[in-house]
Amino acid sequence: MLPTSITVAEQVFHLAKAVEADLPELVGLLADDVLGAEREGRDMQPYRMAFQEIDGDPQHCLLTVRDISGVLAGTMQLTLIPGLSRGGAKRLQIEGVRVGSSARGAGLGAALFEWAHEYGRSRGAVFAQLTTDKRRSDAHRFYARLGYEPTHEGFKLAL
Amino acid sequence: MLPTSITVAEQVFHLAKAVEADLPELVGLLADDVLGAEREGRDMQPYRMAFQEIDGDPQHCLLTVRDISGVLAGTMQLTLIPGLSRGGAKRLQIEGVRVGSSARGAGLGAALFEWAHEYGRSRGAVFAQLTTDKRRSDAHRFYARLGYEPTHEGFKLAL
Question: Does Transferase appear among the keywords (chains A, B) (predicted)?
């Protein structure tokens, strides 16, 4: 059983699977970011449709992290991906990571990733993978501190 | 309806969703690679378990590509990932790409990616993403020619 709260620098944060009522705050957190600001919209309908797909598939876990006053402090989306390569290895893919500006620097990000890794291990994942925009140099240092290795080039193409 | 065959340099290749009987050949193709050789094993059991998980989830499409004599010429795993970020964008994730050494250089890889992108679009994906080992410089040039942009750093961590 994974813990549903984490304590960082004497502050307690509650972790939960996102529900639809979380969406406006989640989108606000995604947009509260130098790159996210230009990528996120105001119309909630596409987010609602995406949420229903995420929520309806047990391979995804969209996580909310709230402080004791209920303010959304962080989010990440965890996806389990089975695959043949690397000996039939299951991957834990981590997308859409945000820690609110008020909670940064206190260790919440690192604690959240520890939780995510334990979640992955408990479901049979043997490695975690994520990509981060090359402009996010702070994020690169953060992932390196957690033990992540920048072994791959991350490509994207608009369809 | 997506085409189930592609013609490259007057050679016809048949595309199909992988079945369990394809596994030994698929693993052989994954291992027939400078990096794959050290990553793949001989015991089929972990591959069978991974295959069953892939096959049981409609969000995945593990593809086999065979030439007209039935020889396996390529494979890739396509996964649709809904997400909140980027306006609730659905991603087409591409993993485990291999084109057999006998079929390389003739344009099969590019044709296969065209097929994959059409598959993604037909299922609502608005961008494709993949990562490739930084040592695969030929692959980087190949993806750049297809229009992919190397905007992201790809991190991995053993769990």
Answer: yes
Instruction: Say whether A26 sits in a helix, a strand or coil.
Output: helix
Contact A37, A66 (CB under 8 A): no
Interface of A with B in 112-151 (CB under 8 A): 117, 120-121, 125-134, 140, 143, 146-151
Between CA B67 and CA B96 the distance in angstroms is 19
Are A130 and B30 in contact (CB < 8 Å)?
no
Provide the pLDDT confidence category of residue A100 given band limits of 50, 70 and 90. Answer: confident
DSSP letter at B34? T
Q: What is the ipTM of this complex?
A: 0.94
- B128 three-class SS: strand
Tokens of B135: 């040592």
Residues 77 to 116 of A: which have CB under 8 A from any B CB?
77, 79, 81-93, 95-96
Residues of chain B neighbouring A27 (CB-CB closer than 8 A)? 84
Among B51, B81, B90, whose Cβ lies nearest the Cβ of A84? B51
Which class is A5-145 in CATH?
A: alpha beta
pLDDT tens digits, residue range B77-95?
A: 999 999 999 999 999 999 9
Residue B153: strand, helix, or coil = strand
Q: For a pLDDT cut of 70, what percent of chain B falls above it?
A: 99
Question: Residues B11, B16, B20, B23: is their CA dihedral positive or negative?
Answer: positive
What sign results for the dihedral spanned by CA atoms B33, A129, A62, A135?
negative
Q: What confidence score (pLDDT) does residue A3 get?
A: 78
